[in-house]
Amino acid sequence: MWTLIKREIDDCRVFFVAGVAHAVFVILVLISSLSGGLNIGAGAGPLFLLVGMLLFCGMGAGQMYMDRTRGISCFLSTLSVTRGAIFTARVITGVLLILVTLVPMAAGGVIVLKVVLQPIPAYQTMFLDIARTVFLLSLACYSLGLLTGWAPGRVIPTLGGATLTFILMPIVIIKGFGVETAAILVLLTVAALLRSRQHFVSTSF
Amino acid sequence: MSDIAIEVRDLVKYYGGRCVLDGINLKIHRGCIYGLLGRNGIGKTTLIRILLGQEPASRGRTFVLGTESMQLGARQRGCIGYVAEGHHLLQHYRVGPLVQLCRKLSRQWNQSFFDKLNETFRLPMDRRVRELSTGMRAQLNLALAMAIEPEVLILDDPTLGLDTVARRQFLELAIDVIQREGRTILFSSHILSDVERIADRIGVLAGGKLVVDCSLEELKQRIRKMQIVFADRPPDDLPLTGIIRQQRSGNEMVITVANWNAAKRAMVDTFGPRHVAEIPMTLEDLFIECTNPVRMATGI
User: Fold this and answer.
1) Could you tell me the pLDDT band of residue B85, with boundaries at 50, 70 and 90?
2) With an 8 Å Cβ cutoff, is B107 touching chain A?
3) CA B8, CA B21: separation in Å to the nearest integer?
4) Along chain A (205 residues), what's the average pLDDT of each consecutive run of 10 residues?
5) Is residue B106 assigned to a domain?
6) B15: contact with A, CB 8 A cutoff
7) Which of A29, A56, A79, B69 could lock onto A142 through a cystine, CB 3.0 to 4.6 A?
8) Which residue from B minimizes the CA distance to A7?
9) By the 8 A CB rule, do B59 and B224 touch?
10) Is residue B173 part of a domain?
11) Test the A interface: residue of B90, B91, B99, B109 with most A CBs within 10 Å
12) What 3-state DSSP class applies to B246?
């Protein structure tokens, strides 16, 4: 399994570099704005979030699209590997990307909470809610990317996931970071992953 | 352990409403080199892909090493070497890393055998797969498939794109592999002389059916091409069953007939031929006769 994960990371290193760059950029902007050096508007948060979500969705779609066009799983499954294992390795790689991007941001957030803001318990609860929702939203966008990336042609793999991400974002903005949003995102993620897996494992390639 | 390496039972496959494979039944025993022949688009690759579980059958069942194709797990897949038509390797990989990847993902890997093959093929380890010529890609694919020491080796037109020397090397290697105990090869090819050289059993797909499934010797016994010279004009019709093809030229008639026997010879003799002789047939001749549409009515 580790070999498969390593192979996926190798294929997607551009996404990992982009993820780390995005995290560093967001932390720098956050530090700069809190120290008074940069005045960011209220729209910056959702914008950063949207960029991140498009990145995760793009990674999912990219993995599947590359597979289809390069015949990756077609070749790997002639070795001692099942398509189910290839899919699992792919999802683990996607989760790794999400963690690589979000963990530094979360760490930055914790530091800001401890050092800059007043130690109010409500902030902590709010921070945990936001972190959970952003993680689940990332996972949902990644899963939608996987789902649309396996579709034939170029239009759906390229634009399908992005469109669904644009639709998904308002749910969070409207419903907030509560448990209801988390439940919706979990259901959506599970459905997208199951459908992608079933599609990936059973269709001819 | 079963003696049968590959089994196909009543296999039917439809593509967009068109029946590509129509009730195929096939058993390939362990240690057999089976040559699968058929014209382009007749379903050879489809049959192989169904065997490997890469495509579902519309009806029927297929088994490789006793396991149903769609249920092949990692362990069983590790016992099957596959060289695909067109050599679908990871084109963006360099040869060295691709070899390493295959080694890590294989159930077993015979490095010394791979090195031996590499010595023969002289594969450039630092070049990307997409930069290799078709012949080199075929050699790489073959080396990777053979290094895993497969119990079953499935070769889908593997010599396509190889020059004469590389093709000869490949055939010798295939024989080398089969000589290791218990290895089975399913070998589909358009180059009939290759099949004739290495296969000990032949299958011919035509019209969605496996019209021939026997040894080459048996096939040569079953289908005969006879030259019959008459004193005058040859008869309009010979009352023989199993005529696949008949041609007339002057007072000479050439017939290709299935299941030639003494009774058929006696029937020909009643027309008082001046001379009856058998024309030797190569596998290519047999293949052309077997895939001839008239064959359908003769029932070889």
Assistant:
1) confident
2) yes
3) 11
4) 88 90 86 71 75 89 87 82 90 93 86 73 79 90 89 77 79 82 91 90 68
5) yes
6) no
7) A56
8) B101
9) no
10) yes
11) B90
12) strand
Residues B89-137 have pLDDT tens digits of: 888 888 888 898 888 888 888 888 888 878 877 888 888 888 888 778 8
Domain enclosing residue B44, as ranges: 31-51+70-214
- Indicate the SS3 state at residue B231: coil
Q: How far apart are CA A2 and CA B211, in angstroms?
A: 47
- B77 and A71 within 8 Å at the Cβ level: the answer is no
Task: Find the CB nearest A78 among B73, B82, B91.
Answer: B82
d(CA A5, CA A96): 10
Q: Is pLDDT above 70 for B42?
A: yes
Q: Are residues B146 and B264 in the same domain?
A: no
Q: What is the pLDDT of residues A74-103, one digit of tens each?
A: 888 778 888 889 999 999 999 999 999 999
Q: Å from B117 to nearest chain A CA?
A: 19
Tokens of residue A182, six digits: 């988390």
On whether any CB of chain A is under 8 Å from the CB of B74, the answer is yes
Domain boundary among B188, B214, B240: B214
Whole-angstrom distance, CA of residue B57 vs CA of residue B69: 10
What's the domain count of chain B?
A: 2
Q: Which candidate, B192, B182, B164, B165, places its Cα nearest to that of B282?
A: B192
- Judge: A70–B90 Cβ closer than 8 Å, yes or no: yes
Are B152 and B201 within one domain? yes
Q: With an 8 Å Cβ cutoff, are A79 and B73 in contact?
A: no
Contact B91 A205 (CB under 8 A): no
Chain A contact for B56 (CB, 8 A cutoff): yes
Which pTM does this prediction carry? Answer: 0.77
